[in-house]
Write the structure tokens for this entry.
Amino acid sequence: DIRAMRNSHPLFVMASSLPPGEECFGPAYGSNDPSSHAYYDHIYSHLKATSFASTIRQGSVEIVPPQTFPHTSTDEDIALLHVLSLTSYTAKQRVNDTAKLVPRDGSGIYGFTASNGFIMGMHHFNNGIGSVVPEIEGINRTCPIRLVHTNYDTESSQTVALDTFNRDSINDLDRPPGAVFGAWRSAVSVPLAVLTGTRGIPQFSPLSTSTELDDTAQYPLFSRVIPSDAGTARAAVAYFRNRLDVSFLGVLYVNDAYGSAFHQ
């Protein structure tokens, strides 16, 4: 439950361009201020609760009439593109012979901090803020698309991630998400990329580095914003050979998509 977890993680607050008191999942969720992150997500949540009766599905977006946005001056239709965010906030560990969910990095701050970057990126796109990416300055005045999202914890598990995708996509065949953000672990992204590819949904990962995902025939709609393991592994071998003069090397690795690709 992201809202509950947020209470113990003060970093899970939008730090850029939000009015005072506006928090990603706080009491102000559903703000009437179009410049806040919460505005378009609130509109999307309301439409979803009413079965999108007032929208038209066109490709991967919902075409929404201007009267749906009571606090904006727009007289044009707005297209809402839903991004399904699959993030590893927690992982299961054995504690006193009992499997429990614990923060993935010990404190849990890393997961929330990384999500803030994703949320801030959507906020900047929706409002045409070019302070980080100058190319999107003012894009909200020329592009009618607004990004909305739902965020789920994959628990660092392939099963949980695929089940979440199925519930949010396959069980709602008429209105699947327009894109998927995630997953983090390569072992999760590999099976997920097969599903997103067959459903025609673009997937982009911030952290999955396995070289297996370089196969564009197998994973045609997968992309990432981080280099693959191929370059990292070559640099490591070069360091051992050229700097440490190592002739023989043993590799201890986890037998999953990330560990196996790095080993190879």
Observations:
- The longest helix spans residues 109-127.
- The two ends are 38 Å apart (CA to CA).
- Confidence is low (pLDDT under 50) at residues 1-30.
